[in-house]
Nicotinamide riboside transporter PnuC
Amino acid sequence: MNLYDLFVKPYESYSTAQILLEASGTVFGILSVYFSIKKNIWVYPTGIISTLIYVYILFNFGLLGDCMINVYYTAMSVYGWILWSKNSKDHVHVDVSWATNKERMFAGVLFILSLALVTLIYYHKPYIDNQFSMQGTNLGLYHLDWANWLDVITTSIFLVGMWFMARQRIENWIFWIIGDFICIPMMIFKELGITSVQYLVFTIMAILGYVNWKKSLKEKSTIKS
């Protein structure tokens, strides 16, 4: 696979509008991560725009299973937006902290439930992608390759990461770093070169976010003492 096949060929059949729409989703996604690093509530408006764009793109491509997962991302972003609004003194920025043991236990349960939910969606994906028709459709996980199974795992990782972020917990960045890093080779395998570069950028930004939030908490603790 050369650079042309990875970054250009997949987009030859796309219209200009489709390319601009996907690019817009990517830009808003990067903006969302940037605002998250800054502990700025605009992480959610920009993130919602990005996920809604991908909901539209995936729906039009008939990828309804993936579309439903992005609908969940959108719902989690609304939940996070509400929590950050309540916990922000200036209605823009929030304070951060480490998760409690109880929250970490809940995150473990959430991860397992997310694995079950996403696997269930993929089990019914042939039916969903066939416009909710069983005609000529066989349910099951037979259609999944190793990249799809990684997608199941990373989706669950991201869902837990979104929950930790909504709670303003530093641990969210650990999940984003792991999930984004896994997605890089997965997207290359799917011949989505531009998206793989996006996840590389996300990985770097997530590392910066982790460092920034830890530094912010340390500075706050120093001021209090």
